[in-house]
Specification:
alpha+beta; four-stranded antiparallel sheet; two-stranded antiparallel ribbon; 3 helices; 6 strands
Amino acid sequence: MTTAVELSGRAKAMLRAVAAGRGELSGGREPDLYVDGLPCCDQTVTHELVNAGLLRTHARFGVRVGAELTDLGHAAIA
């Protein structure tokens, strides 16, 4: 079952940055987002985007790798 998610302007901007290839996620239970190498200002939103299935990472704990949008993430900013 899928539920609609209301995204803030900040959340959409974060998704657009990832879509542009500017985002990295750290590995771990609650990954952190880095944009242009800098920590994102709102890690709570990052966690919500990951938990909602809009962002994903294949990083191991303590390692940063490129963040990816899921199909839902692409749809959210289309």
